[in-house]
Design goal:
Chain B: Keywords: Membrane, Transmembrane, Transmembrane helix. Chain A: This is Polysulfide reductase. The complex is a heterodimer of chains A (447) and B (92). With 447 residues, chain A is an all-alpha fold. Chain A has a single domain, classed as Up-down Bundle (Formate dehydrogenase/DMSO reductase fold), CATH 1.20.1630. Helices cover 74% and strands 0% of the residues of chain A. Chain A is built from 17 helices and no strands. Chain B is mostly helical. Helix content of chain B is 82%, strand content 0%. Chain B is elongated, with a radius of gyration of 21 Å. Classes of the chains: A mainly alpha (447), B mainly alpha (92).
Chain lengths: 447, 92
């Protein structure tokens, strides 16, 4: 029994190591990221001082990188809550080492994505007018409401399952015990507390799914509720949701591979986890292709002149390289890698995931810019070249994401320790019982 | 004795901070609710699609109230029967 306990303690020590051991790599990483963020802040202050003229936005292209990145980052947020909630709801046991990583992605990128419209405003003080003079008739306000709801729900959904692990950190002693004691909310693992927590997580995991779907549907409405060719499409709602889940899974895979590599979590993040998520990524790639094909086939068949201008701009015009790059990154590369077991190694899955993240960013670019560049009024086709300011703020946003993740892993276990332990103790028997109940035979005695 | 008093005071301070954090959550949710109500009032005043405004608020406000309710339920639940019945955290 003691030997078993010691073995368990040794096994899970790897999950505590990032918190209690700090190598030079951590300080170097944080230092570099902070430097990038400070430079980005300086560039943003410069933008506020000189105005949006320092960006590449102009007439008719009044939305550029900031809106592209807004949609992109919010899309990635679907990684977390949706995947984590759906896997929990479907009692997929392989979810246990993945859910917290996914939930952290959501919380961080939602905050980053939600700030991008403020960057796009030019004058950040104008955001206060949302509170004093907002119009609920506008899809932009629906966006504010739904993103706020999703961010709140995701943060709560991240925090509650962390409580037992926070209590473990409190009980281990060492640094910042007062902080863990504050966050642990008096958890001592009693039967009553376990029931309360389980009930709360169950309610949240059901609640968070429609909220997550509504967020990206509402984001699509800021395009589809206009009459712009290329935007005014009924398919945009589900198309955006599919794209969000797609990019979310890819981002999650990249984060998992990085943490597995840097924190030696091979015992927890096994090839099977990557293969299962890789299969989901493949399914989403095919779904994405189906939606994209439907979208453009409908437009081409209708042959409405303004719609065709936008389509030709993407297919053969200025944006052809970005459009076909998107198809290669989102469909060709992932399908080739993920459809064949031979290529479905961790390296292959990493390549596919990076390709999808790039492809989905290109998809956002292909949605936002071409429709604006081809105005319906008798104006010349617009040209958008993002300035150094916009590139810097994009890189800064990525740096904020990485820093947020690194700092989270410094204070909290990136893999849910208590869920792993629960899995070891109870899941094997539970899964065996469940599978037996599916198989043909006499009805279960308890039914 | 000092250590006991300090521990007691520390526990009280931490509990107060936790209680404040839950209260802040309710301040946030009530703030959002008041904001949405203000937007409905504005839309009725300006005759600016009040139906949509009310429809959105019927969905949004309960979501925020439910989230605050869940957090409160967990906080109260943890501090009610569990405190005096110490067992190790799950998996220990």
């Amino acid at each position: 029994m003691i030997e078993e306990t010691n073995k368990k303690v040794e096994l899970d020590e790897a999950l505590y190591r990032p918190i209690y051991e700090t190598g030079k790599g951590f300080y170097l990483t944080v230092g570099v990221l902070l430097l990038i963020i400070f430079i980005t802040l300086f560039i943003y202050i410069r933008q506020v001082y000189y105005g949006l003229g320092v960006t590449g936005m102009n007439q008719p292209i009044t939305w550029g990188f900031y809106i592209v990145n807004f949609v992109f980052f919010i899309g990635i947020s679907h990684a977390g809550t949706l995947i984590s909630a759906i896997l929990r709801l479907s009692k997929a046991e392989w979810r246990r080492p993945i859910t917290r990583m996914a939930e952290v992605i959501t919380a961080i990128v939602l905050a980053i994505g939600g700030l991008h419209p403020i960057l796009d405003l030019g004058r950040p003080d104008r955001v206060l007018e949302i509170f004093t003079a907002g119009r609920l008739q506008s899809p932009l306000l629906w966006d504010v409401t739904s993103i706020t709801a999703y961010f709140t729900a995701s943060t709560v959904y991240l925090y509650l399952p962390m409580i037992p692990d926070i209590a473990k950190l409190r009980d281990r002693g060492g640094k910042m015990v007062w902080f863990y004691e504050f966050l642990a909310w008096g958890w001592y693992g009693t039967e009553h507390q376990k029931k309360v927590l389980s009930r709360a997580i169950n309610i949240l995991m059901v609640m968070v799914i429609p909220i997550a779907i509504s967020v990206h549907t509402v984001i699509s409405y800021i395009f589809s509720m206009t009459l712009q060719p290329g935007w005014h499409s009924t398919i945009f709602g589900p198309y955006f949701v599919v794209g969000a889940i797609f990019s979310g899974i890819a981002a999650l895979l990249i984060v998992m591979i990085a943490f597995r590599r840097f924190f030696h979590l091979e015992n927890y993040l096994k090839l099977i986890h990557f293969r299962y998520l890789g299969t989901l990524l493949l399914i989403m790639s095919l779904l994405w292709f189906y939606f994209t094909f439907s979208e453009y086939l409908t437009g081409i068949f209708g042959s409405e002149p303004h719609e065709m201008d936008v389509i030709f701009y993407k297919f053969t015009g200025t944006y052809a390289i970005f459009f076909w790059g998107m198809v290669v990154c989102n469909f060709l590369i992932p399908v080739v890698i993920l459809a064949f077991k031979k290529f479905k190694t961790i390296k292959g899955i990493l390549i596919a995931s990076i390709s999808v993240v790039i492809g989905m960013w290109l998809e956002r670019l292909n949605i936002v810019i071409p429709s604006l560049a081809n105005p319906r009024m008798g104006l010349e086709t617009g040209m958008y070249i993002p300035s150094l300011t916009e590139w810097s703020l994009f890189i800064g946003a990525i740096a904020v994401f990485v820093l947020g993740y690194v700092l989270f892993s410094k204070f909290f276990p990136i893999i849910s320790i208590w869920e792993i332990e629960e899995g070891r103790k109870e899941s094997v028997e539970e899964v065996e019982k469940r599978v037996k109940s599916y198989l043909p035979g006499p009805a279960n005695v308890t039914e | 004795m000092m250590k006991y008093i300090n521990r007691n005071l520390r526990d009280k301070l931490i509990f107060t901070a936790q209680y404040l954090s839950i209260s802040l959550m309710w301040v946030f949710v009530i703030g959002i609710t008041l904001w949405i109500i203000n937007l409905i009032y504005l839309s009725v005043d300006l005759k600016d699609a009040p139906g949509i405004s009310i429809g959105i608020s019927l969905v949004a406000i309960p979501v925020f109230l439910t989230l605050a309710g869940i957090l409160t339920y967990v906080f109260v639940g943890f501090h009610s029967k569990g405190k005096n019945n110490f067992i190790n955290t799950p998996g220990d």
